[in-house]
Amino acid sequence: xxxxxxxxxxxxxxxxxxxxxxxxxxxxxxxxxxxxxxxxxxxxxxxxxxxxxxxxxxxxxxxxxxxxxxxxxxxxxxxxxxxxxxxxxxxxxxxxxxxxxxxxxxxxxxxxxxxxxxxxxxxxxxxxxxxxxxxxxxxxxxxxxxxxxxxxxxxxxxxxxxxxxxxxxxxxxxxxxxxxxxxxxxxxxxxxxxxxxxxxxxxxxxxxxxxxxxxxxxxxxxxxxxxxxxxxxxxxxxxxxxxxxxxxxxxxxxxxxxxxxxxxxxxxxxxxxxxxxxxxxxxxxxxxxxxxxxxxxxxxxxxxxxxxxxxxxxxxxxxxxxxxxxxxxxxxxxxxxxxxxxxxxxxxxxxxxxxxxxxxxxxxxxxxxxxxxxxxxxxxxxxxxxxxxxxxxxxxxxxxxxxxxxxxxxxxxxxxxxxxxxxxxxxxxxxxxxxxxxxxxxxxxxxxxxxxxxxxxxxxxxxxxxxxxxxxxxxxxxxxxxxxxxxxxxxxxxxxxxxxxxxxxxxxxxxxxxxxxxxxxxxxxxxxxxxxxxxxxxxxxxxxxxxxxxxxxxxxxxxxxxxxxxxxxxxxxxxxxxxxxxxxxxxxxxxxxxxxxxxxxxxxxxxxxxxxxxxxxxxxxxxxxxxxxxxxxxxxxxxxxxxxxxxxxxxxxxxxxxxxxxxxxxxxxxxxxxxxxxxxxxxxxxxxxxxxxxxxx
Length: 697
Fold this sequence. Notes:
Helix content: 25-40%
Strand order of the largest sheet: 6-7-5-8-9-4-10
Shape: globular
Oligomer: single chain
Number of domains: 3
Radius of gyration: 27 Å
Number of helices: 20
């Protein structure tokens, strides 16, 4: 039942009226009477008997005869709920979009089967009848025994050569001077062609792919999807945002042809999203791509799950039970014996753990190929640069960055400038004593919207036109953090006559035409330039590296690599300047273009300190009394270590519970059971439980 109470997270038995017997099939939406109220529910299974000893009520209504809950998705949803200490109802709200009655009644167009004609030439996946969907357990909404422990890296694996299913490199040369623009495709990666063959053969190959600079990653994803479809199986691919989805959508249209895939995104609107969902559920298309809304998409005979840039925080669902798209897809591959492709320019510690445990193999290019495609990268904070330009340690745009941009503009190539913050001056301080400027009403940070605008609070929106510093009484303000629009204004003065454009959350540029010009972009909003950028400047590195975040270094490198990958190779004049000290580990990884080295270093440090993904950690947030109450009810595993409390937002506190990875299921089960006890007692203060949250502090 769709009831947000943890103690009701189990199936309930009802009788099916004779008039609904033909249409009330597993997977349909129903309404039932429960505790005197009419509530929504999902029909999981039809059976001839019940273990309930009391009197059973009848189904009140069949909402729709459309079986929207696929058995494989129901099984996955149960496993995800168990992994994240959540309830099945919460996961099903994420997995199945709201019903749109008009779309359901639309006539289904006559289309050819999405499965190739030579389907009979391929062996079906284990447990999957030819042309059918995976055979689930007896109760469609209940995971099989041990499903809650389906973490791929917690299970033993055979020898490394066969753990992932990706054949070892066998004489596939990497291009000596190739690039994505030269059309080398997967041949630039020694194990790439073997990975495609494994997909075509229907094998459960698992790969962590480190994309080369300038790589046309949507085309590579589309080729992997086409290989899987040729093998008679389906694909689910997830990207972080709408811009990446548009690129992948276009690439799949080229690779598969029209009407062979659908794109799922919460931004589509109710009707379009539900129409795309039904196309996948009815088996009309073999490939579904989308943002995290697509991670539960129903696909017949699933053969490949893929995720691009898994380190992007947009992959983390902000609604309970807060699953991460990467973890959902890995669990799905584990349950359905599907292939896996985790790709990106950077590599997360979680992806590195997959490689180090042998659960997946690396898809990387030879070092000579990497060097041939990488732009020339230079830091501004090392000793040689400081000797030539002593002001480089404090200047926002050191001379090296300025001359690099000037040379690229003279060569009639565009220049990309990445800055971490959007807006004009997102943070200001007193010009006299340098104290941060705070709102007199809510103590939120003040920001300047423009050169002549009055300071306004970023939290409550109130304008502080008559601001006076409470420390010294000063009324003049200075910039503490410079945003993208102010940076564009400064560059416009530094390079008169050169067009300057901004690309951020307010306006995302999809593509930049060739020719000279400056583009100022925030991370994630960098456009693609025709032929590549002649220069990429990475400014305000301190704002990324000094964040109080466990993933600060990893996130910084991810953003830098994404921007640097848009530059031309060094042989074509491409240059990247990072305004940072060259001795820092993220800068070293950028200079060598070696995300695997940094990911291995990051994972080793987290093992030593006891942080995810080396361990499993749950965050319990709420009022002090509510958190203490839940932890007192929880029967935590013996190895559990309780850390905290630490302050959280809105006068709440947070406790962290850490266990070895092998005890992750026991921890999630204990926290879910404790939440159920509090729900049954009708506890007033809510408690938020998150397993492996992105933010711990």
